[in-house]
Amino acid sequence: MWVDMPDDLARLVRDRRRAMRWSQQELARRAGVSRQWIVALEGAKPTTELGLVLKTLAVLGLRVDVRELALEPAIAAALDSAAADLASRTHSGGSGMRRLSTAVARAAAPVPRAPMPEKKPREDR
């Protein structure tokens, strides 16, 4: 499932909890949070603490998989093929469809990654 908005995550958590036949109280107990916090998470409260969200997802057997917003190569290839097919069927020679095909190919190219900043050693207190 794609999660683009707080509502998506709220629905995912609620549906998973229900599929496991857990009450909000049971999920709260297992995640070490209050029932009110679970209510806020399932209500898509945008200021819900990220650390607790990740902990709750883990309790539900879920994890976050972060990916770049570039097109997957297989999707790009399928779009390129479809654009080429459409281009071959147009009366004007398909120049617009060829441009679309090129744009899709460019969109599928890997996105350059910025270098990760070096982590400073954490001082124990």
List keywords for this structure.
125 residues; mainly alpha; 434 Repressor (Amino-terminal Domain); 2 domains; 6 helices; 0% strand
What does this structure look like?
The structure is a single chain. This protein is an all-alpha fold and 125 residues long. It folds into 2 domains: 6-59, 434 Repressor (Amino-terminal Domain) (Orthogonal Bundle), CATH 1.10.260.40; 73-108, no CATH class. 57% of the residues lie in helices and 0% in strands. The protein contains 6 helices and no strands. It has helices at residues 6-19, 24-31, 35-42, 50-59, 73-89, 95-108. 11% of the residues are buried. The model has no long low-confidence stretch (mean pLDDT 79).
